[in-house]
Amino acid sequence: MKNKKQRTLHDSLKRIYTVLFVLTIGFGAGNIVYLWHQPDVTANALFFCAIQYVVILAILTIPVLLRKRFMIHIPLLITVVCALFGFVTMIMGDGLNFYGRFSWWDSVLHLFSGSVLAFVGLWIISIMFESSSQVVLRNKAFLAFYVLLFGLSCGAVWEVCEYAYDAIAGTNTQQFMATTTASIVSAEDVPLCGHEALRDTMGDMILNLVGSLLVAIFVFLRYDKLMDMHQSAIEEE
């Protein structure tokens, strides 16, 4: 019965993965063609969109390459969750301009990203220490602390990338404009000044912290269950 449920979940995740792949290609091509025919579109805007779609396609294909070329098994659930997060962030957020339409879109995603990254960090450390007898995995306080720091540090790296890209491409991924929350801006948009210009960046990092903290608490409280799942995965391999 358990194996049947696992197969059903696996098949459902594969279908979601396929749908995300098809939608990414479709929306990517359609959005670039649409922007190309807009009279006021800039080269930076087109380059920004192209990079977005390249990144999400990489998220979708890298797990497959790692499994086939390097025999590194990335759980399908993690692959799908990361791909789904990339889709709602890049395709819906930037491609469909949800960042500009809904001011809360970015905040919700950063809260979610902290949790996703924390679980990715937990998976990484579990494959680094494959035996549950290892001291690292036996210390639930260390695991919870590691998960918290991993999610927070990844969020900080993301903010550094956003800052760099805004400086290079003239975008608004850090939402420092007073007149719009969209990533692609026009010459008429007005930037925020002083302390207000830091609001989005610091808010995003705080939300990453909260999301990572929730997962860290979950790891600490559900440690025994997580270790049972880890041991079962080792035995199945």
Topology:
Layout (H helix, E strand, L loop, with lengths): L1 H35 L6 H27 L6 H20 L2 H4 L3 H24 L6 H4 L1 H30 L29 H23 L1 H14 L1
Can you characterise this structure?
This protein has 237 residues and is an all-alpha fold. The chain folds into two domains: 1-96, no CATH class; 102-237, no CATH class. Helix content is 76%, strand content 0%. It has helices at residues 2-36, 43-69, 76-95, 98-101, 105-128, 135-138, 140-169, 199-221, 223-236. Helix 2 (43-69) packs antiparallel against helix 3 (76-95). The longest helix is centred in the first third of the chain and has 35 residues, at 2-36. It is globular, with a radius of gyration of 20 Å. The mean pLDDT is 78.
Mean pLDDT: 78
Number of structural units classed as domains: 2
The level of helicity is: over 70%
SS elements, strand count: 0
* H/E topology pattern: HHHHHHHHH
**C-alpha end-to-end distance:** 20 Å
Which structural class fits the helix and strand makeup?
A: mainly alpha
* Overall 3D form: globular
Strand proportion, as a percent range, falls in under 5%
Largest sheet: none
Low-confidence stretches: none
Q: Over all CA atoms, what is the radius of gyration?
A: 20 Å
- Give the helix tally: 9
Task: Please tag this protein with its features.
single chain; 237 residues; mainly alpha; 2 domains; 9 helices; 0% strand
Task: Give a quick rundown of the structure.
The protein is an all-alpha fold and 237 residues long. 76% of the residues lie in helices and 0% in strands. α1 runs antiparallel to α2, α1 runs parallel beside α3 and α5 crosses α8.
